[in-house]
Design brief:
heterodimer, A: alpha/beta, eleven-stranded mixed β-sheet, 40% helix, B: 98 residues, two-stranded antiparallel sheet, 36% helix
């Protein structure tokens, strides 16, 4: 029996290298966990039939001495990232039987290292939501309390890692979709700088916001995955040029936007945990400053204008003509109406209509244009703030995981994104790291805190994430 | 907003909706728009400049151009054609437009 609890990428790599077990045995150990737990947790939408064959290929690499750190490492892949020849549904009826015709750049990179893809995991339909309750195939349950949601939209990715149903996972983050479920599931979630990881082969949702990120048990694993998938890509026109790693040789200063945090409706236990985390950082030798960022409290309003606008345009391609669900009508126009009417779930319709509204001629100036101006303004405010501090700290989410079905009003789910959307709006990297638990109805529910860094500042996040893991013990 | 507005948006977005869905969408959109209305409070500071459309987030991101030449792509033509709802001789078949 391989002990999966506490297993990390480096530990697994060393164990395979030293012959303690093979890639095949490691993959089998995860497949056994999936077999045992998937019925209750609903994490995997499909387990790939060729997982063991992939592991055999990885074992060959170890034998021939060409293995690298990610060779044979079992991954869960969010079901909106394309793997050639595999189904990729975006958890939507619209694409239930759609088969990817090419590999996403991140998949191509992981394949070249010999990583093993166990299967595709659940999400909110087209990555829109905060709990995976918008999946057309049922919500993913939280491994810490199956009555509760895993968070979202990458709830399948984070639950897979938390429940030892994968060693690491890929997710996507448009407004907090890796970080929020990571905090709900008690693991680490990274959203890189916009443009540092190629979006080629990630189903577009909000194209100026989308990022592919890693879900992992600790910061070190999240960093290893990031370094493997990051890099310039000609196939993504918003891809950044590669930059060098910056060694950190100074004491980091952390800013906390207290007026913002105090103003928002943060659960009292979450706030207590956050304040305790701040004290731990101070005791760990970090300078923590109170900072104020003008208009930061408007960030969620900006997000819920720009994001649906981009959604409504991006999802226009799903019309039942070339691929995906097709519903026959009397004429082509009816084909469109019926296919989209039947294929899209409630939250998708809501956002498409909202986006259509804010982009319509009469309201464009009042909403979309205003939101873009406010976005530019906020970006400049963050540049100013980062002149005096290295990192910005907030809770990851204002509450712990809620119960499945508890939130019926869409706006109340949107409010869960209040602290995470900022990083997407201004394009900076952010990481959620576990900060302890709160007790609720006899269960310990995980909580997380979020560090944000300036553009390209992932190194700062890995540095502080690793330190916090030590001092939080 | 009223039910006519919802119908107009659904028409633009090409989504077939039932009467019950229209009513529930009206309620949801009213509440969401009530929230995002805060955007009206934003003070437009004179030096903020035009919205950086097209390069929204990163300080180092600029428009990316390339020569208009065809490059190799590893799309699977077969996989694409097999997913057409209707096809003929390797072409996508659609209903007549006019």
């Amino acid at each position: 029996m391989i002990n999966l609890t506490g297993l990390t990428i480096k530990k697994a790599h060393e164990a395979i290298k030293s012959g303690e077990y093979t890639c095949r045995e490691l993959t089998q150990a995860y497949l056994d966990q999936i077999e045992k737990k998937n019925k209750e947790l609903n994490v995997y939408l499909e387990v790939f039939g060729d997982a063991l064959a992939q592991a055999d290929e990885a074992d060959k690499k170890f034998k021939s001495g060409t293995a690298v750190l990610l060779t044979g490492i079992p991954f869960a892949i969010k079901d909106n990232i394309l793997i050639e020849g595999k189904k990729v549904s975006a958890a939507s009826k619209m694409l239930e039987n759609y088969i990817a015709s090419y590999d996403a750049t991140v998949i191509k990179k992981l394949k070249s290292e010999g990583a093993v893809f166990l299967g595709r995991v659940n999400l909110d339909e087209f990555a829109m939501g905060g709990s995976t309750e918008n999946s057309a195939f049922g919500p993913t349950r939280n491994p810490h309390d199956p009555r509760r949601v895993a968070g979202g939209t990458s709830g399948g990715s984070t639950a897979a890692v938390a429940a030892d149903m994968a060693l690491v996972a890929l997710g996507s983050d448009t407004g907090g979709s890796v970080r929020e479920p990571a905090s709900f599931c008690g693991i680490v979630g990274l959203k890189p700088t916009y443009g540092r990881v190629s979006r080629y082969g990630l189903m577009a949702m909000g194209s100026s916001l989308d990022c592919i990120g890693s879900a992992a048990k600790n910061t070190e694993d999240a960093e290893i995955v990031f370094r493997s998938i990051a890099g310039h890509d000609d196939l993504d026109s918003t891809s950044l040029e590669d930059t060098k790693e910056n060694p950190i040789n100074k004491k980091l200063t952390i800013g906390v936007p207290w007026d913002f945090i105090n103003k928002e409706g943060v659960n009292p236990e979450v706030k207590k945990n956050f304040m305790a985390s701040v004290e731990k950082l101070k005791a760990g030798g970090y300078e923590v400053k109170d900072i104020s960022i003008q208009n930061i409290d408007l960030v969620l309003a900006i997000y819920y204008i720009i994001m649906p606008a981009e959604v409504s345009t991006n999802l226009a391609r799903l019309d039942g003509v070339r691929y995906g669900l097709h519903q026959d009508g009397k004429n082509l126009m009816e084909d469109y109406f019926f296919s989209r009417g039947k294929g899209f779930g409630p939250e998708t319709r809501r956002r498409v209509l909202l986006g259509t509204y804010v982009l319509s001629a009469g309201y464009y100036d009042a909403y979309y244009s205003k939101a873009q101006t406010a976005r530019t303004f906020l970006k400049k405010e963050f540049e100013k703030a980062f002149k005096n501090i290295d990192l910005i700290l907030t809770p990851t989410a204002p509450m712990p995981a809620w119960k499945v079905g508890e939130k019926s009003d869409p706006l109340s789910v949107y409010l869960a994104d209040i602290f995470t959307v900022t990083a997407n709006i201004v394009g900076i990297p952010a990481i959620s790291v576990p900060s302890g638990f709160m007790e609720m109805e006899g269960k310990s529910l995980p909580l997380g805190i979020q560090f944000m860094a300036p553009h390209g500042g992932e190194d700062l996040l890995f540095e502080i994430g690793k330190k916090f893991e030590q001092i939080a013990l | 907003m009223n039910i006519k507005d919802i119908e107009g948006l659904a028409e633009l977005a090409r989504i077939d909706l039932s009467q019950a869905e229209k009513e529930s969408l009206l309620k949801d959109l009213d509440s969401i728009l009530g929230y995002v209305k805060q955007i009206e409070e934003v003070e437009v500071v004179p030096d903020v400049g035009r919205p950086e459309l097209g390069r929204p987030t990163s300080g180092t991101s600029v428009n990316v151009w390339r020569e208009d030449v065809a490059g190799a792509r590893d799309f699977s033509r077969e996989l694409i054609i097999n997913q057409f709802p209707d096809k003929q001789d390797g072409f996508l078949k659609v209903k007549k437009i006019l």
